[in-house]
Amino acid sequence: MGRLAIRRVIYNGEKYSFESPYLNDGLIIMEGINGHGKSTFMNLIYYALGGRVQAFNKKDNDVDNKHNEIYKDKNNYVELLIEICGEEYELTRYIGDSLIFVVGKDEKVIETCVSRNQSDDNTIVFSDWILEKLKVEVFDLVQGTKSFKLNFTDLMRLIYHDQSTEVSRVYKEADNSNFLSDSLEIRKAIFEVLLGKTYNDYYYILGQYKLKLKEFEKAQAIMDSYDEFLGEILDYDLANVIHIKSMIEENQEMIERVQIEREIAIDQKSNVDEVWQIIDQQKSILIERQNSEEEWIQSKQLTLQSIDKIVYLIDEAEKELEEIEKIRLVNKKLKLFTPNTCPYCLRKVEREKGKCICGNDIAEEQYEKFFYTDEEYLDILKVKKKAILSLNSLLDRKNERMHVIIAHIEKSRQEVEKIKKYIGELTRDIASNYNSAYIRQLDERERELNGKIVELQQAEELAIKREKLVSEVTQLRNQVEGLKIKVESYLNAAKEDMLNKKEDFDKIYLDLMKRADEHCFSAYLGEDYMPHINSGSYRERSAAVPKRLMYFLTLMIESLKNEVNFPRFLMIDTPNKEGIDRENLIKNIALLKETDIYTKEGSISYQIILTTGIDTYPEEFKDFVFYTLDGDKYLLQENG
Q: Cβ(317)–Cβ(384) under 8 Å?
């Protein structure tokens, strides 16, 4: 657990300036008349800690909402002397700039940036720097497709009790307020990180899990797309890398054997009997290839007939579907067809039960089947549409089959022409007494094998990439499963810890609320960690002041009692809102000193900076006042 304290606040500009005295531990008070600069003092601290203060924003032309002395001043900056875990640091932030310069005891200047989007390798994020010093793990929060880091200013929403936020909302308004920044998940995370002993570890692991899950899902999608790509460019199932390498080696060995055979054939004269024997063998192969070609041609004719028949059935089914839809529409609007309607003139007929319109006997159930309700028509249409879908699916398969058949026919024709050419060359070799045809066949065989090796090498590249993707997906899947187990483990421990903290929080909060509000008899935290007073019954608006103030005070007390991330630091800006009377406000402020009960006789330090009206505090708090703003004494004084 880290501890934060503000020791000095300085503002400097060309026209105005301010310097506070050294700020001690415990409760310290700035009192003043409204409009003299109490909220400005708090905003200067918050701004120097990386917060967004709209009244200081020089890039916004909404002048009506500006702090003119600061907005119109030039070369102005805030300088803050802070103490973190006993170490002092000087922070400097120029008004309108996103950079915060940090100087430690070694006097080395560290350049930090408020905006995460503007940081780079040389400029770290200020929030990351201060959270690291406070020993709070920086982690990612993932919501849907968006991921972002929980910043120090997010935690300040339960550390800075500002004046502008509606008290019933409890949490300070987010700097960039939107549905995401003020979501229930974010607010719960802020509370749990500040108060939970292990929730920071849980959220860190949860962020890692969600990011890794997104990475895994992306890799899985890439692998699926790659498999789909392979299915489009290959007409065979791609083997694994080991098998492909083995096939490449086999083809290379076959090339070596072909080369040896060719060398032997070149040195030998042709044997007429052997040549005639080869010719006979090739003629037999030729007949087989021609028969195979004829079979494929017949398959093509049969497939074409099937395709024509399916196309006809689809056409007829679509026409029938269209007719049924028309009949249903007309019948629905005009109610033309009923069991008691003449099919010729459409007039109503008084029909005897068990008799047809023509007078013949007929079973009533059989008679009624020709007349359908709208629901029955819809069922018929569904059946027809399903049949059309099935026919279209069958047509697609037949077209795919046709492509295969055409490819086989073309391959058979090429082989037939190749065999015929080879037989012709062998016939000429009989007269020349030379093995030229056989040698040419060996040359062709070598070319085929080389071509096959090229194809296999290309297939090997595809297979290597596929196996790399599979390996990556498998590794990510294992990492996701491991992180999921860790998330569940941390969550169970964090829930148990938070349950104990919540019970203790409720006890302290109820005690404080009863003392702060005489009409309070029930006060506890809901599942969303928001305070519930008197079981949610209606209260006057002024009752919201102690509700929020005691909530912040309870957080401070919990940090003094337990090892938590809350930095034992509170900023409370003028809590006299919503019409609370002065007497009750003073009674509420008096409770701030309850923190001293939990400091273990002064061995644990804390700091509460309070701004309030003149003498709007208990008389015994007079010694805690470090600055008074009244009369002509404003916070920002013109430079002499």
A: yes
